[in-house]
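Appendix C. Worked example: Glycosyltransferase family 92 protein
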Amino acid sequence: MYLRNTCRIIFQYRYHTVLLLLFSTVIMVYYNYSTLVFVQILLRNTATIGKNETSTSFDSSTSSWSESSSVWNTWTSPLTDSQSQKNDTNSSLNAFIKTTTVWNLLKTSSGNQRVTVGPKGIPDGPRFQKVNDHDAWLFSAFFDNFNNTDLIRVFGIQPLLLNTSVFCHLLDGTSTYVIKGTKKDLFDWHRNRRRVFSYECLLNETSRPNNVSLTFNETDTPTNSLLVLYPQALQRNFTVCYSMLYNYKNPYQLVQNVEFNRVLGAEHFFLYRESVSSAVDTVLKHYQRQGFLTVIDWPIPVGEIHYHGQILSLNDCVYRNRGVSRYVVIQDTDEFIIPHHHDNWTELMEVLNKEFELSNKSQSEQLGTYIVQSTFYKQSPNSSEWANITGHFSISDEEFQMFKKFSLTVFSNLKRLKTHFVGERQKSFVRPETVLFNDIHTPDKNRPCIANVTVSADVAVVHHLRWWTSSEDYILDTTSLTFKDRVLPLINETLLLLTL
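Step 2, the predicted output written as structure tokens:
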């Protein structure tokens, strides 16, 4: 009787049962799909910074951050080459800094875990984010220490005359607190309406926020959320920071510059991409796969700022490489900082550092920036001059054809202006931990007790491959050809591989 009644009930409500099963199935599929999408978002955000550039995760316990305080001075102090070798394996610093992995991002325990999605689901990848309804855009945030005070430094863009207060919404573990911040515009001699700004949020000794959001009214709900980037352990000697690329269509120039710089000692490159041709994008993807190029997209949302926010991109690059790279090289793709008596940048730096140590009488200053003078290389030698050059350098017909076919002007434009530019157009090697704000050519402001030196034009020169109308006499300079036999095979290999 019981079985018969049960069967009758199931038959009577058979349609309801089927609907219930279908509904349950839909719920399960949706849940699994949402989880998959969430993991994909985390992977995408983690990869945005670049293949070789990793975000950092910190144990927020008191003991870990006490240890971090003991190594902060080491991280912010310029190193001599001998000191650098010792600190490369600094166990305290390596214990302090941990690489963020997807596993860490997926942890959901009640402990202090790094949060990768901000208010209203705003992702943390490097991109421009608006400050509510104001004409202000933020790009990146960094943990910093200035005058023995811990702070979060945010870089962004706003009109110079937008006079508002700044409020920092700091996400520390699972709690958020609000403090009043300050802001400072970076110098721009072009005097555009919009400027690059540094927004500063002072911290107490124990606070280590994961994310920061800015508003200009204390009670506003943030519409932005930036992941705070912390210093990492030393990974390399030289990193090249290119200015942002806008409407850039010269793949041969880019390959020429990257491969020449690799021979000189560059180990990683940062490039800010606003708009490039498909051929250039092919080159970028190739170098990204090789693992030594970080590309950061740069869809700047506003105008009336000097050259698409170039100063912001350069400061972002310098700050991203604090602690990571011993030197940052500031240059464009048509510029080559070439030593005239050394085989590479490492040998050049060793000589310059020794000269500074001998000349530094007070011992109170440390060397932060090496300024290299520039001049224009714009003409190719005539036939008789080439005949004389080939008497000293072995240049085959095939190599001459490469110079012409791929516009390898670093080897063909060997006639330069007789003089060098003084106080302008120079480029720099920078110890990133010594600079407060960087300009296009040299630091705008150093940290305390930091000195700059100007490198003699007899030692190294910026070979700027740019057309320039001048009545000045030109002189022949074949320095670049001394690197030809090391650079050309790399250029040829890359161009053949990419079939450009």
